[in-house]
Predict the 3D structure of the following.
Amino acid sequence: MTPFELVEPASLPEALKLLDQEGARPLSGGTALMLMMKAGVFRPARLVSLRKLGLAKVDSVAGLRIGAMATLSALERSPAVKSAFPVITRTLRTLSNVRVRNVATVGGALAHADPHMDLPPLLSALGATVTVAGPGGERSMPVESLYAGYLENTLKRNELIVRVDVPALGKRRAAYLKCTTRSADDWPALGMAVVLDGDEARVVLSGATDRPTRLLQAEKLLKGKTADEKALRQAGEAAAEEVHIEGDMHGSAAYKKQLIRVYLARTIHEARNAIH
């Protein structure tokens, strides 16, 4: 690892100013960044710590508002999240391991743009938005708009995620399932998030693609038919064909196509039986 300077700004404007310089990178939890620095993938001259910016609050009034510096374990253990969004709590229990969750942050996990992460597809299916701060002020976008490709986000150098907003679950039902080839908390070969809202289904795939991807053709076939086994099979076939599948160390493209066929129906069933 090459030498670097560590700075800890006390305000968001100060942090943004420090980031708007060549060789600077933000540091939140650092669980992924430090590994990539040790591997020589990143060689920043300066790390800008975000821990003093007051961005760790989790608020469940009128939906869910998550500060970017809230740790995954804080989100997992939040009684308010467990009550209003039990699907998030369940998902976090098998996201990596407790040591990582104690340090990794929500904003860092989203900005890292690894397609094997569990939160991005679920938050996308729930209709969550991220608020990004930059020198010109704040802007909001759907979670899926953060991603440009494998380990590529759409943030500018001098921008930071400051919070995530998730609309109230209401009468919607949600589920997230993943298939791992080793332990339950391993990176998934495939992740599938489903949110059912009346006769509409919102389906988001991860792990098998280079970014969280909505399965639009499958959603059309599922409209009003989420309890129809024939429609589930047809939607699974459509889902397996409508996206470019990425083979990797967790499974070949052919294997992941079959997982899509199986896990689409399985996650729909899980969502239909979900407790609010």
Q: What stands out?
A: The mean pLDDT is 95.
